[in-house]
Amino acid sequence: MRRVEHIMGFPISLLIEDEGTTAEAAEPAFDWLREVDARFSPFRADSEVSRLDRGELAPHELSPDLTEVLGLCEEYRVATGGAFDVRLPGRGLDPCAMVKGWAVQRAADQLAERGARRLCLNAGGDVVVTGGPWRVGVRHPERADRLCAVLEVGDGAVATSARYERGDHILDGRTGRPATGLLSLTVVAGSLTEADATATAAFAMGVEGIEWAASREGCEVFAVDAERKVHRTRGLPVAATT
């Protein structure tokens, strides 16, 4: 079963390779992602995030989901010494860097709970898979028609932060300026919550973020710095060549 929808500003594609699976089986997961977009988008004036940013909601009035997300954001802010920060001066509250991976991982978990055994959920290039092995390509940071690595993942997630799609959009919260020390950084982890947030946070830190991400339990890293030097951890699950 294959399905693609455009939610949260990027395409989300789902592939389930279980016999007999119908499109209706995926509906609750896509409903959840649409709900997250409505509730967490800083670009919607009526979202919970926007209402909190305007001071219309007190901390005790927040939903458990937003409380969880903001808690994760604070954990990463502290862990990176402020490089990962969803409350930058002069900008509104924007937890999108955390919400994407968290929400897509929750959707994958819901599908698994409903019986999906072999699935690949791809959210704008960041993927969560189960029932592998699955092969996941890492795009070359300067050549859209090339891969610089192919990974093999059974159950887990792969996320990449880079400059090639949206330019210098990731800011270093310590300086408020664009992070330019890396061309791309990919993280393999047990969940997309961890992989996506770690990739974004490490990219914001610049070259020092490579070692920081690699030191996190359960994370493997592939990175290309601004000098085009490749870095990768020993445990990176590189697919065998055939």
TrEMBL record:
This protein's source sits in the domain of life called Bacteria
| Reaction(s) the record says it catalyses | L-threonyl-[protein] + FAD = FMN-L-threonyl-[protein] + AMP + H(+)
Q: Per the entry, which co-factors are needed?
A: Mg(2+)
Q: Which Gene3D superfamilies match?
A: ApbE-like domains (3.10.520.10)
Question: Which GO molecular-function terms appear in the entry?
Answer: transferase activity
Q: Which InterPro entries match?
A: ApbE, ApbE-like_sf
Which top-level enzyme class is recorded in the Swiss-Prot or TrEMBL entry? transferase
Print the keywords alphabetically: FAD, Flavoprotein, Magnesium, Metal-binding, Transferase
Q: What is its EC number?
A: 2.7.1.180
Protein's name in the database: FAD:protein FMN transferase
